[in-house]
């Protein structure tokens, strides 16, 4: 049953629907209630070693890279260790400085992406330590790494990644929780994050219940020549992944920008023909985001907001509300409606949803 659509119209919507179960499997047996931390035996690392890293560098391609950006934010927020994500494809073509006190983490659903494998090999050649966040057990990248976390998201057939993406960010939340608890994250904050993680499957289900309304919005917005996706800080990797999903399966042009960058150039693109999806969690940047939305509306741009609370009508045309979790974990839930938006845009435009043109599920060649 894993390899047929089980009554769904496409693998993609089947996999989107499977996300609550995928997240449960990623979390299963890994939350340590007693010490408010994550138990990740596959890291092959004791607390002293985990404490010694001064930096975290995350490598992956495409959606795996965007999931890595969310992972980098989680590590910085929870463990207060500087963390950055970089496309593995770029990393391997430059001459990267490999540092002994940097923890390298490679991200791959398939475990077979050649660019990511080559990046792992380059780190290892220069003596660095690499962990894998990988879905496919025993894959080339998993075998090449010094340890890691398997997603257990189950097989992902559709070319566009959905459940593996979400499970990857959940795996990073576990890694960040673990690194946080060997640094300065308090037991109370550890327990807060653990509780937030456990609430995710039920909250993803709540987002999926809005599929009909999101399908109607997708049909409305898919008719435009392109779409802009914006977000600030936690919303920014959500915007990047939302744009990627839309372009790869619907072929609607999509641009992602940090909301703060709009006025430095791309605001010139805003018009009634280019609607904006604004990712607006109810965090300390809410007011700044509302200001940006006001600036877009003032240029007659339509705004579709994805967030936690409905603002005054002058700020946005349409709203998709998602449940609140802990602020650090909000990007996970904010991503789910964008998957449904892209899926239903592709369906409305009669695209080949599971096998978009020009793309392969995993790029195993240079
Ligand atoms: C995801 O929707 C894309 N099709 C693509 O960006 C993908 O995430 C990327 O090629 C990396 O694949 P991997 O996770 O199997 O390494």
TrEMBL record:
- List its EC numbers: 2.6.1.16
Main localization is cytoplasm
GO MF terms listed in the record are: glutamine-fructose-6-phosphate transaminase (isomerizing) activity
Query: Keyword annotations for this protein?
Result: Aminotransferase, Cytoplasm, Glutamine amidotransferase, Repeat, Transferase
Q: Where is the active site?
A: 361
Coiled-coil parts of chain: none
Query: Which intervals hold domain SIS?
Result: 45-185, 217-356
What subcellular locations does the record give? Cytoplasm
Catalytic reaction annotation: D-fructose 6-phosphate + L-glutamine = D-glucosamine 6-phosphate + L-glutamate
> What EC class is this?
transferase
Q: Does the keyword Transcription apply?
A: no
- Lipid metabolism as a keyword? no
Q: How does it assemble?
A: Homodimer.
Known role: Catalyzes the first step in hexosamine metabolism, converting fructose-6P into glucosamine-6P using glutamine as a nitrogen source.
Q: What is this protein called?
A: Glutamine--fructose-6-phosphate aminotransferase [isomerizing]
Q: Name the source organism.
A: Streptacidiphilus monticola
Instruction: Recite the lineage of the species.
Output: Bacteria, Bacillati, Actinomycetota, Actinomycetes, Kitasatosporales
Gene responsible for this protein: glmS
């Amino acid at each position: 049953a894993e390899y047929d659509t089980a009554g769904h119209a496409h693998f993609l919507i089947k996999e989107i629907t499977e996300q609550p179960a995928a997240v449960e499997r990623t979390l299963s047996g890994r939350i340590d209630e007693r010490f408010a931390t994550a138990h990740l035996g596959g890291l092959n690392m004791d607390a002293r070693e985990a404490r010694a890293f001064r930096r975290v560098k995350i490598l992956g391609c495409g959606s795996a890279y965007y999931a890595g950006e969310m992972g980098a934010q989680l590590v910085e927020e929870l463990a207060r260790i500087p963390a950055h994500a970089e496309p593995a494809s770029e990393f391997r073509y430059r001459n990267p400085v490999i540092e002994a006190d940097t923890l390298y983490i490679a991200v791959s659903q398939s475990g077979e992406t050649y660019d990511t494998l080559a990046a792992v090999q380059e780190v290892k050649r220069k003596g660095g330590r690499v962990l894998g966040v990988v879905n496919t057990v025993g894959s080339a990248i998993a075998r090449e790494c010094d340890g890691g976390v398997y997603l257990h998201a189950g097989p992902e057939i559709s070319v566009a990644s959905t459940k593996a993406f979400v499970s990857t960010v959940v795996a990073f939340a576990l890694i960040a929780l673990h690194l946080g608890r060997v640094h300065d994250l308090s037991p109370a904050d550890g327990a807060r994050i653990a509780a937030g993680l456990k609430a995710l499957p039920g909250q993803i289900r709540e987002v999926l219940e809005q599929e009909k309304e999101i399908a109607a919005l997708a049909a409305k917005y898919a008719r435009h020549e392109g779409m802009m996706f914006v977000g600030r800080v936690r919303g920014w990797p959500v915007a990047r992944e939302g744009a990627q999903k839309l372009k790869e399966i619907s072929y609607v042009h999509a641009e992602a920008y940090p909301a703060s960058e709009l006025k430095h150039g791309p605001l010139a693109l805003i018009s009634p023909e280019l609607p904006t999806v604004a990712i607006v969690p109810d965090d300390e940047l809410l007011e700044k985001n509302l200001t940006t939305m006001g600036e877009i509306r003032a240029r007659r741009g339509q705004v579709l907001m994805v967030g936690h609370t409905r603002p005054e009508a002058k700020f946005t045309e349409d709203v998709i509300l998602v449940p609140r979790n802990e602020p650090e974990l909000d990007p996970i839930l904010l991503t789910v409606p964008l998957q449904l938006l892209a899926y239903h845009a592709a369906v409305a435009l009669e695209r080949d949803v599971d096998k978009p043109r020009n793309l392969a599920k995993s790029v195993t060649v240079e």
